[in-house]
Write a structure and sequence with these properties.
The strands form three sheets. Strands 7-8-9-4-10-11 form a six-stranded mixed sheet, sandwiched between helices. Strands 1, 2, 3, 5 and 6 form a five-stranded antiparallel sheet that branches. Strands 12-13 form a two-stranded antiparallel ribbon. It has a domain of about 70 residues. It contains nine helices and 13 strands. With about 280 residues, the protein is of the alpha/beta class. Helices cover about 30% and strands about 25% of the residues.
């Protein structure tokens, strides 16, 4: 049974339609990655699924209920989202920031209970950030801050976590640190992870299911063997990719690529060149 899916979803800003008649299913207790060129609708889709922005038509269904009819607190107990560039109030400590994840469970004057404190400590422990509990968030490195934000999402005790480009601005070591943590949460705790990634090889390495978007529509959805192919990448990114094999995982990887010139399909000739961020050093 699929818990989360969309039906003929239309999302836009003003009169500009970004996502068109999109119907997708999010596999439960798996890692799903959304890939595509800049402006194709990846982040917009995440925001609509998590009800940060409204959809113009269609529905998002979670556990058989249209999320537009669900209360905010109940929805926040089911799904958490880490935006692309999260910002916290200056001066917050790590513990204070993570405590915000307990908002959906607070009553009355919003005082934290012993249960809340236990969950906060657990989230810090799982993400390896407990030693930073009393440090200002601003004093941490990029990788440390990202783990703290994930801890806040975990403190919500949701079974579904959305992340919009969680590796942006991080060096290679910190990117792996964050992705391996998410993989651990998925494998050991059965969390459903949905994230936007630009790095195709990271998507192939860590995702169970990949959704490739182009102009707000699904070009291909499936496992990495189905999506990380020469033809799909040609269509989505307008590149001539050489697909090899990761020596450690045996999954497909983009070993090199060229921008397509002169042999574009009719719909591609007038489009701007797109250079996907592809890392091959794993």
């Amino acid at each position: 049974m699929v818990r989360l899916y969309t039906e003929e979803l239309n999302i836009g800003y003003g009169e500009r339609l970004i996502v068109k008649d999109l119907s997708v299913e999010i596999p439960d207790k798996k890692i799903t990655t959304i890939i595509g060129s800049n402006g194709c609708g990846k982040s917009t889709l995440l925001k609509a699924i998590t009800r940060i922005i409204p959809n113009q038509a269609g529905t998002v269904v979670l556990d058989g209920v249209n999320i537009s009819k669900e209360s905010t607190k109940i929805l926040a107990r089911k799904m958490a989202i880490l935006p692309q560039t999260p910002e916290s109030a200056s001066g917050l400590t790590v513990g204070e920031l993570v405590s915000y994840g307990r908002f959906p469970y607070q009553k009355g004057f919003g005082r934290l209970t012993q249960k809340d404190y236990d969950v906060i400590d657990w989230a810090l422990e799982v993400t390896g950030t407990k030693e930073f509990k009393f440090r200002p968030v601003d004093a941490l490195s990029g990788g440390q801050r990202q783990r703290v934000w994930i801890a806040m999402a975990l403190a919500q005790e949701t079974e579904i976590i959305f992340l919009d480009e969680p590796t942006t601005y991080l060096d290679m070591a910190h990117q792996l640190e964050v992705l391996e943590l998410l993989q651990k949460l998925n494998v050991e705790q059965g969390r459903t992870i949905v994230m936007v990634l630009h790095d195709l090889n990271q998507a192939a390495r860590f995702a169970d299911y990949i959704i490739a978007l182009k102009d707000g529509e699904v070009v291909k959805a499936g496992d990495c063997e189905e999506v990380i192919t020469h033809e799909v990448l040609k269509d989505v990114f307008h590149i001539d990719a050489v697909i090899g094999r990761d020596q450690r995982t045996n999954k497909p990887m983009c070993s090199t690529y060229n921008l397509l010139k002169g042999d574009s399909t009719p719909n591609e000739k007038d489009s701007d060149p797109v250079y996907p961020a592809v890392s091959v050093n794993y």
